[in-house]
Write a structure and sequence with these properties.
It contains three helices and no strands. The protein is an all-alpha fold and about 120 residues long. The radius of gyration is 26 Å and the shape is flat.
Length: about 120
């Protein structure tokens, strides 16, 4: 029974791979299949700027959540020194990470001003 399942799976896999390898590229070369650029950016600079803005917005959303989480662990530690330290570490590392996000954003803008972009 298991041998038949393996055999059928192997046959179906070979058929699928042969379709991918032979039929799909022929259709693309003949112009039957057209691919559109999934990126809406015309230049690399626009793409990098969009990525930086995305990371900055994610940082703005995640930072308060992590800070609240660290404060919750700190307040609910019940005197356990490990949990107290864990809560402090979360809040400190969150503040450091947020500061780095701001510094990198500022550095990118500074470099853009210097280069005149």
């Amino acid at each position: 029974m298991l041998a038949n399942i393996k055999k059928n799976f192997l046959i179906l896999s070979l058929i699928f791979l042969s379709i991918l390898v032979f039929v799909f590229p022929l259709g693309a070369k003949a112009g039957l299949i057209e691919f559109e650029n999934p990126l809406t950016f015309g230049t690399i600079a626009e793409l990098i700027n969009s990525l930086i803005n995305f990371i900055f917005v994610i940082g703005l959303v995640v930072t308060p959540l992590l800070f609240i989480f660290g404060g919750f662990i700190f307040l609910t530690s019940g005197g356990d020194t490990n949990k107290l330290q864990k809560g402090k570490d979360i809040m400190i590392y969150t503040a450091i990470g947020f500061t780095l996000i701001f510094l990198v954003r500022g550095l990118v803008e500074f470099i853009k001003d210097i280069l005149g972009v």
